[in-house]
């Protein structure tokens, strides 16, 4: 909330980016609608604090984008109070001979008569809201249109982005986005009414936004900022809760809890041919009980309910199940669940059909204490909340927890003796299987530790060194009979791997919020037989470093490498040329460096039957790339299709899309793809991306 009054830049908090809000006032720039709405509401709450806070009423009198700064979480802070005035409760207006404000943000009554009231700030706020929603180009069309025509124009422009954007929104989410958009543009127009008495007060504006959020909570709560993981302190210290997952398909509507869980009390699972619904109850850190759900079961068949009441000393320490397609859900749902507690096993519920998953806890005292999910007729996907140590009593006690292992029971057990805090590097030797793994990390005292390789000799050596701003946010792989056959590491910057030959049962451990993987444990003999992870639920938020980041590559290891075709760091992508038929035959692109000089690369590969060229507009940039990797002819792994998504539209797919899907989406509004690297022979065998902050 923008409620911190800053009188000068010298008093600003150190976490401010000092990025002007003008950065987002172009509709085609980086920030998505959800971020813009969050900023709009934050500014309104800040103005409300000035007008109606515990101090005497303060009028800012120079609200404009350059006086609103964003911190690293894009929370707005109102700055520059050099023209502000204090108004008592009884003073309704003031006349001045001194020139204040900024042209374009001053109301008519001040321009004509130099009258100052609280509606001065309301007018300025309305202009800012319209600029955030529309951008300066669309705002310039406002005088030539009626209010209704202007609303329809803005609604049409944004609705195209909602329908085509990344992530792909559900129909419920689109309805919620449209409602937020309509409310904000109507509210902005009301704030810039020529007659000041027709403008709302800031209290009325904030009240309307709060009512809107209550409606969105019912329609599509996933659009609202999460209220977790902030947990109030209790007499036992502060509980650390980790959020992990999801596992399952991509359908359904998002469901989550509002109060952080501390201990799971009961579950209700509706099952038949699949898992139809899930409900549960839990205690928070203050001992208050909460009942949730059931989530799902919206179809005619709701299955049979199975109720589990956990005893006073019983904790949920493991969940396993299967994911697969089901009736009316071709993208997959949770088809079965098995729950293991410290006392017994419950289930399996549903039918053991599809790809298996396994989520075991290893911490003494650690347990699964709650859930979040995507649901509709079935439970499409779910994730878990983990309390690493129910007996934690010290706020600064290391809160890492162990999850896993995945793999077999052969070989010697390997573990670390000192709790890890931050992962520094990982070394993997692999060929057909993962031969060995070693890693280095720092502990909670800042000391550095390096493990010996766990496993045998042989294979190709791959060392991943994490930069100071990079941490491991996901981990996946495959296992065969008593061996780990492949591993893939996913950080906040890029993906590494897969290392080894992908084959066997898949597993994955995605982190959520600020959690990260900070270490490993497992079993090994001549190969890596099993692997588990240490996770830190409160990994510090690290700002992305300025400059270039490499992401990928995805695909095979054959052909010629194209790592150094561009010798100058790219800053903006200008065009992409793709030749394709069954697979992506060749790729070329042009980009500009930080000095505006243009560079060309490619074509990599050989010409195919179809050639397409994408020319990006002056304010257009690539926000995501989707594709597939699979075998083709004598090649074991090549790029079989590519699809590009920009802030303005979609291009592709190019190629027939046979094989395994991959994706390289940028974090909403923060980064863009500006170049490529990879390998090619007669076709494009692998592809990676150069990424810069927007």
TrEMBL record:
Q: Can you say what this protein is called?
A: Uncharacterized protein
Q: Does the keyword Nucleotide-binding apply?
A: no
Keyword annotations for this protein?
Answer: Lectin
Gene Ontology MF annotations: ATP binding; carbohydrate binding; protein kinase activity
Q: Which InterPro entries match?
A: Jacalin-like_lectin_dom, Jacalin-like_lectin_dom_plant, Jacalin-like_lectin_dom_sf, Kinase-like_dom_sf, Prot_kinase_dom, Ser/Thr_kinase_AS
Instruction: List residues of the Protein kinase domain.
Output: 1-216
Asked if the Swiss-Prot or TrEMBL record annotates the protein with the keyword Transmembrane helix, the reply is no
Similarity comment: family membership: Belongs to the jacalin lectin family.
Superkingdom per UniProt: Eukaryota
Domain spans labelled Jacalin-type lectin: 241-388, 400-537, 548-693
Query: Which organism is this protein's natural source?
Result: Oryza sativa subsp. indica (Rice)
């Amino acid at each position: 909330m923008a409620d911190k009054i800053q009188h000068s830049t010298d008093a600003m908090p150190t976490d401010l980016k000092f990025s002007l809000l003008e950065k987002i006032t172009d509709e085609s720039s980086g920030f998505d609608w959800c971020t813009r709405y969050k900023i709009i509401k934050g500014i309104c709450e800040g103005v409300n604090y000035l007008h109606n806070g515990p101090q005497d009423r303060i009028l800012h009198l120079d609200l404009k984008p350059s006086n609103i700064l964003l911190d690293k979480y894009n929370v707005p802070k109102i700055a520059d109070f050099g023209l502000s005035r204090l108004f008592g409760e009884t003073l309704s207006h003031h006349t001045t001979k001194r020139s204040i404000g900024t042209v374009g943000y001053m109301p008519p009554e001040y321009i004509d008569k130099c009258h100052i009231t609280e509606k001065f700030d309301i007018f300025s706020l309305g202009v800012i809201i319209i600029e955030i929603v529309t951008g300066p180009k669309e705002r310039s069309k406002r005088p030539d249109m009626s209010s209704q025509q202007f609303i329809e124009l803005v609604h049409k422009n944004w609705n195209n982005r909602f329908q085509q954007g990344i992530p792909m929104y559900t129909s419920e989410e689109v309805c919620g986005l449209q409602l937020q958009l309509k409310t904000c543009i109507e509210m902005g127009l009301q704030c810039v009414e020529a007659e000041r008495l027709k403008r709302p007060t800031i209290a009325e504006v904030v009240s309307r936004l709060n009512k809107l959020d209550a409606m969105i909570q019912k329609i599509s709560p996933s659009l609202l900022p999460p209220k977790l993981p902030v947990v109030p302190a209790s007499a036992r210290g502060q509980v650390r809760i980790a959020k992990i997952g999801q596992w399952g398909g991509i359908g359904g509507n998002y469901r989550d809890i509002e109060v952080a869980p501390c201990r799971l009390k009961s579950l209700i699972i509706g099952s038949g041919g699949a898992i139809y619904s899930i409900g549960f109850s839990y205690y928070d850190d203050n001992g208050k009980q909460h009942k949730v759900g059931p989530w799902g079961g919206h179809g005619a068949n709701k299955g049979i309910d199975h109720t589990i009441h956990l005893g006073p000393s019983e904790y949920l320490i493991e969940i396993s199940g299967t994911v697969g397609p089901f009736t009316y859900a071709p993208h997959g749902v949770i088809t079965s669940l098995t729950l293991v507690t410290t006392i017994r096993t419950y289930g399996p519920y549903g039918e053991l059909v599809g790809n298996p998953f396994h989520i075991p806890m290893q911490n003494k005292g650690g347990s699964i204490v709650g859930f979040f999910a995507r649901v509709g007729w079935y439970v499409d996907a779910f994730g878990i909340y983990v309390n690493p140590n129910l007996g934690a009593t010290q706020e600064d006690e290391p809160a890492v927890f162990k999850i896993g292992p995945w793999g077999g029971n052969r070989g010697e057990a390997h573990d670390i003796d000192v709790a890890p805090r931050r992962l520094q590097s990982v070394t993997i030797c692999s060929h057909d299987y993962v031969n060995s793994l070693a890693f280095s990390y720092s502990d909670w005292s800042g000391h550095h530790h390096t493990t010996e390789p766990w496993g045998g000799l042989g294979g190709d050596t791959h060392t991943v060194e994490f930069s100071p701003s990079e941490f491991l946010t996901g981990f996946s792989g495959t296992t065969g009979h008593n061996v780990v056959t492949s591993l893939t590491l996913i950080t906040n910057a890029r993906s590494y791997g897969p290392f080894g030959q992908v084959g066997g049962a898949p597993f994955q451990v995605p982190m959520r919020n600020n959690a990260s993987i900070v270490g490993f444990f497992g079993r090994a003999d001549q190969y890596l037989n099993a692997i588990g992870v240490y996770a830190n639920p409160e990994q510090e938020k690290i700002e992305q470093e300025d400059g270039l980041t490499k992401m990928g590559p995805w695909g095979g290891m054959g052909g010629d490498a194209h790592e150094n075709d561009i010798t100058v760091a790219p800053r903006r992508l200008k065009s992409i040329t793709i030749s394709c038929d069954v697979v992506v035959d060749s790729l070329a692109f042009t980009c500009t460096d930080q000095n505006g000089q243009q560079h060309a690369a490619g074509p990599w590969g050989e010409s195919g039957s179809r050639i397409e060229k994408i020319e990006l507009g002056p304010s257009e940039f690539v926000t995501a790339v989707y594709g597939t990797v699979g075998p083709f002819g004598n090649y074991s792994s090549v790029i079989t299709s590519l699809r590009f998504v920009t802030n303005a539209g979609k291009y592709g797919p190019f190629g027939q899309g046979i094989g395994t899907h991959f994706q390289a989406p940028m974090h909403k509004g923060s980064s863009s793809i500006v170049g490529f690297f990879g390998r090619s022979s007669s076709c494009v065998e692998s592809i990676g991306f150069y990424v810069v902050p927007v």
